[in-house]
Design a protein that fits this description.
alpha/beta; 6-stranded mixed β-sheet
Length: 297
């Protein structure tokens, strides 16, 4: 069996959307893909709902038929356009968008995945947040795509912060990198408030699962909300005796609140995923999914 490559260059983006202007956003996504490839990125991650903006879909004044009209099928025009760029530049891109079913009127909050081979697949947000439940349908499946760096898992915003089962599942299945597409509002002028929520959730994911997390956030004013930026790449920090004591920032800037892309190289050998490997004292992993599945009231 071919061993996965160990170093991957990841681009994360603070993305400033033009709300409801799909053409302008798609053009900007394409420009970032080309720039990331020029800087040697193997993968570029965009935020939640990058293609259309987030507020357009939670704004009660926008008619449901207009929301349906703006959404796209996956694959569709947007994924076709970006996949041509990723094929040309031999890179991966993951971006958020409203996905419309081929038949019917259901919409999902989705992450489209394209790469060197073109269109790869789609992750549909399993846990829509708050008013998202008015316009989008809940997804029901995790999504892993396979690369030269091994399997990579995807979650969207609320999935990541309040439902650790998803990230844990991906780590159990061998993922050393988790991608978080997000739309986090900078609700307070107090810097610590943004850190305490967004950053703490991501750090806890690193510490619990011993994997890398790339997170891309919207930034600036959408229709009504001001998004916080702070796109960041976190991963485990190994200290003596291979003990993972804390998480480290490998790219991005939690305090950056304007549009910007960061490209950083990470060493995936640091993602020990130790709870899923055999414990030397027992010969079995500490993680016991067979037991958890039997828990009941």
């Amino acid at each position: 069996m071919t061993q996965p490559s160990q170093e991957i260059s990841v681009a994360i983006v603070n993305f400033s959307v033009k709300s409801g202007d799909k053409a302008a956003n798609l053009k900007r996504i394409g420009e970032f893909v080309e720039e990331a490839a020029h800087q040697g990125a193997n993968l570029i991650l965009f935020p939640e709902m990058t293609l259309t903006g987030y507020d357009y879909y939670i704004d009660d004044s926008v008619k449901n038929e207009d929301k349906l009209e703006l959404a796209e099928t996956i694959p569709g025009e947007a994924t076709d356009y970006i996949s041509e760029l990723t094929k040309q530049h031999n890179t991966y891109a993951v971006f958020g968008m409203p996905e419309r079913e081929n038949v019917g009127s259901r919409i999902y909050n989705s992450a489209a995945v394209v790469g060197p081979e073109g269109f790869i697949g789609v992750y549909r947000k399993i846990h829509p947040y708050d008013k998202e439940n008015i316009w989008c349908v809940k997804g029901d499946k995790p999504f892993i795509f396979h690369t030269a760096w091994g399997p990579i898992g995807i979650g969207i915003c609320y999935d990541t912060y309040h439902f650790p089962e998803l990230m844990r599942y991906y780590a159990w299945k061998g993922c050393r990198l988790y991608l978080n597409l997000t739309a986090v509002i900078r609700e307070s002028v107090v810097k610590d408030a943004f850190h305490e929520g967004y950053l703490t959730y991501l750090k806890s994911g690193v510490l619990m699962n011993h994997i890398f997390i790339a997170s891309s956030n919207l930034v600036g004013l959408d229709l009504k909300n001001t998004f916080g930026g702070g796109s960041i790449l976190l991963g485990p920090q190994v200290v003596s005796h291979d003990t993972i004591a804390y998480s480290s920032c490998y790219g991005g800037d939690i305090d950056c609140d304007y549009e910007r892309m960061y490209v950083s190289k990470i060493d995936l050998t640091l993602a020990k995923r130790s709870i899923f490997e055999n414990n030397p004292y027992t010969g079995r992993p500490d993680f016991r999914p067979d037991l958890y599945s039997n828990f009941n009231d």
